[in-house]
Write a structure and sequence with these properties.
Blueprint: E1 2-10, E2 15-23, H1 28-43, E3 47-52, H2 59-79, H3 86-97, E4 99-104, E5 109-114, H4 122-139, H5 148-161
Antiparallel strand pairs: 1-2, 1-3, 3-4, 4-5
Amino acid sequence: MKTQKTFWILTKDEKSKCTLSLFDGEDTFSRMSEKFLTYNKKQKLLSAIFREESAEKTNPQLRYYWGYLLICICDEMNNLGNEFELKEANEVLKDMFYNEEIYVQCTNKIIKMPESLAGAGKERMAMFIDKCYRFGKFDLGIQKIHTPEEYFAIIKEGNEKNGR
């Protein structure tokens, strides 16, 4: 069976779409690399970022991440002797859990670079949130940190009590 995936090729100067036709079991990255090398010969680029196109992240995801999870993690990191503001804590978490792979032709290597959450789709944002939650719960040892489901159930319960 053959499927098509759309990716963005992001370079220093431009952003263009790239559609790949993939057969079941075919390695997506190999096909992206092949397509990029063809593109690169025409454009003479040194590197590019491949990002799969996806649905937008949701407002509840953003509310949970910025309004609860990031605050819990930032507070705990500061309790351990750091002095992070929310934006700095966000950068730390992106460095750890939200990277994009960049192919650098001159070295023929793939490197990982922190990625902007602005282009995150719903599924990637959910994976990022899950990694951050696990980091807070298990690595930092935050006992009273809630999953998104628990958090929104608490919010809903509070709203019902207040007649909203």
